[in-house]
Amino acid sequence: MILNQKLDKILIIDFGSQFTQLIARRIRELNVFCEIVSHKEISVSKVNSNVKGLILSGGPLNVYEKDKFSFDKNILKKNFPILGICFGHQILSKSLGGRVKQSKHREFGLANLKKKSNSKLLKGFFDKKNISKVWMSHADQVTKIPKSFKIIASSQNSKFAAIENDKKNYYGVQFHPEVTHTHNGKKLISNFLFQICKIKKNWSSKDQRLKLIKEIQNQVGNEKVICALSGGVDSSVVAQLLNKAIGKNLHCIFVNTGLLRKDEEKQVINTFKRKLKMNLIYVNAEKEFLGKLRNVTDPEKKRKIIGNLFIKIFERYSKKIKNVKFLAQGTLYPDLIESKSVTGSQTSKIKSHHNVGGLPKKMKLKLVEPLKFLFKDEVRKLGLELKLSKEIISRHPFPGPGLAIRMPGNITLEKIKILKEADQIFIDGLRRHNLYDKIWQAYAALLPVKTVGVMGDNRTYEYLCLLRAITSQDGMTADYYDFKKTFIQEISNKIVNSIRGINRVVYDVTSKPPSTIELE
Ligand code: XMP
Questions:
Q1: Which atom of ligand 1 is nearest to the CA of 398?
Q2: Which is catalytic among the residues 35, 164, 178, 369?
Q3: Looking at ligand 1, which residue's alpha carbon is closest to its atom 20?
Q4: What is the DSSP letter of 512?
Q5: What's the rounded Cα separation, in Å, for the pair 400 and 343?
Q6: Could you read off the pLDDT of 4-41 as tens digits, one per residue?
Q7: How far is it, in rounded angstroms, from Cα 124 to Cα 103?
Q8: Given the CA of residue 307, which atom of ligand 1 is nearest to it?
Q9: Which of 15, 63, 119, 177 lies at a CB distance of 3.0 to 4.6 Å from 152, suitable for a disulfide?
Q10: Which of 19-23, 107-111, 245-249, 345-349 has the lowest mean pLDDT?
């Protein structure tokens, strides 16, 4: 579905590449609006005159397995400038009469791209020796290019690494300009946008603030809006936008599940009620949550109980506010993109994610979703412009079910207390060593095993604390952060020495996949 019919845009047709969202981010960074649509749902009739150019993404498919994907070739008759990337390059070539085959040498990683002829697309791309480093990831390759195309650059294994038909403004590249490993990838994308599609800059986070405030005012008028505030970046930015737009007609509800990080509720109340003077309803539901979770050990059950109870409480309190017409949610653009992975594997199926911001559909409220065209990094920029503190803006993501899923096994008050302390020591340590912003997400977890230790002359028999810190782009894949030994030692010593209940600390070095970021 194309969401925004008004703005000029670049349309990205997604064939399931893990990098599709990166293409969109690079374009947005160049201050141009773009949207992503799935190959399964785009047809020529849905492409209107706001579209100034098309990008065909990469993907895990083979162009010769036609039953696995769909591509409406009539799109090619519309005379848009087109850039095909990797699989997109192959499908463009094949659709116009070229040939694609499985290559003898699969190419993964960096390759030297050599200029073969001048091209608008690759202007300013090469060094003095006409070479540029590009990042490849493919098993198939184009073996014959369509008539009227010419080679503009080659790599050792890909003769047709970059091709063009400059009369039609069709371009294909076997490498990935959207990943940062491709040295001048942004230059290539910029050439495509401004020299070839001739689209004007129409997107900047600065304009967003005023535009979004105005749009909220137009949508909501004098009606009341409720908003579930979690204290995370997205809901905080939504709340502050609405606060600026409609002031006292905004009612935020903040539910303390008892499973938040240490002192989190105090910070949220302090920021939103005291500093920003918002209407904030604080609901302390610790007892209710812990009551329902007593003796529950199954991860999915925990998630469901927390999700359902959250909605019940949210509904209960929102009914107390009379004449509410709207519900504000921190839905982001990646949540809306319908290009479900072509292979069908989706993180949301691995765990039933519960998003604190949403869900009570039966409340029959109209939705206000001001962030629905934005990526997370754009939301962060917007937050800074809205003068939210850096602490809120740069906060690591925190899952809706909170500490419940960082404590495999049953949940008790004692364990929560121990875990909150350990987590705080770890996070404070990251901040002290200037590591917090280098890490996408970090936390401490409490494992349901006790091990033997010795402190002074005494035997101890206490819990095992697991530390996890990962780097990631979007949480879909992740790698562990490679701390210096002295840092891990310092944190481990602090935790074991100052927290009764933990006598051993381990560091999780698995990536995602095969693990997930959270433990449950
Ligand atoms: P996993 O564990 O699936 O986590 O690798 C990926 C990212 O999602 C966060 N997460 C959640 N966020 N509700 C949320 O709002 C949830 O139920 C939930 N479960 C996981 C997790 O913290 C990580 O950032």
A1: 22
A2: 178
A3: 399
A4: B
A5: 27
A6: 778 899 999 999 888 898 899 899 999 999 999 989 88
A7: 29
A8: 17
A9: 119
A10: 345-349
How much of the chain is helix, strand and coil, in % rounded to 5? 35, 25, 40
Q: DSSP for 355-405?
A: -TT---GGG-PEEE-TTTT--HHHHHHHHHHTT--HHHHTPPP--TTGGGG
* Dihedral-angle region of residue 136 (phi above 0 means left; psi in -120 to 50 means alpha; beta otherwise): beta
Task: Examine the residue annotation and report whether 178 is marked as an active-site residue of this protein.
Answer: yes
Mutate to test the pocket of ligand 1, among 406, 517, 520 (most ligand atoms within 8 A of CB): 517
CB of 46 sitting under 6 A from ligand 1: no
Beta-bridged to residue 253, according to DSSP, are: 228, 281
pLDDT digits (tens, 9 = 90+) for 399-421: 999 999 999 999 999 999 999 99
Q: Is 124 left (phi over 0), alpha (psi -120 to 50) or beta?
A: left
Q: For a ligand 1 pocket test, name from 354, 468, 474, 518 the mutation site with the most ligand atoms within 8 angstroms of its C-beta.
A: 518
Note the pLDDT tens digit of each residue in 355-396.
Answer: 544 455 667 889 999 998 888 888 999 999 999 999 999 999
Contact 98, 149 (CB under 8 A): yes
| Shortest-distance atom of ligand 1 to CA 353 | 17
Q: Which two tokens stand for residue 465?
A: 């604390």
> Is the CB of residue 304 below 6 angstroms from any atom belonging to ligand 1?
no
Tokens of 516: 């997930």
**Would strands 478-480 and 458-472 be described as parallel, antiparallel, or unpaired?**
antiparallel
**From the alpha carbon of 354, which atom of ligand 1 is closest?**
17
| Cβ atoms 398, 392 nearer than 8 A | no
Strands (E), 128-212: 131-144, 150-154, 162-165, 170-173
Nearest residue (CA) to ligand 1, atom 21 = 399
Sequence letter at residue 192: F
Taking the C-alpha atoms of residue 386 and residue 381, their distance in angstroms, rounded to an integer, is 9
Q: Which residue has the tokens 């006790």?
A: 450
Stronger pLDDT, 122 or 473, i.e. the higher one: 122
Count of CB atoms situated within 10 Å of the CB of 227: 26
512 φ, ψ (degrees, to nearest 5):
-115, 125
The pLDDT assigned to 21 comes to: 85
Options 34, 35, 86, 369, the catalytic residue: 86
Quote the Cα angle for 150-156-160, to 5°: 20
pLDDT at res. 376? 86
Which residues make Cβ contacts (< 8 Å) with residue 297, sequence separation at least 6?
Answer: 408, 409, 410
Which residues are 225's β-sheet partners? 250, 326
pTM score: 0.78
Instruction: Classify residue 395 as left (phi > 0), alpha (psi -120 to 50) or beta.
Output: beta
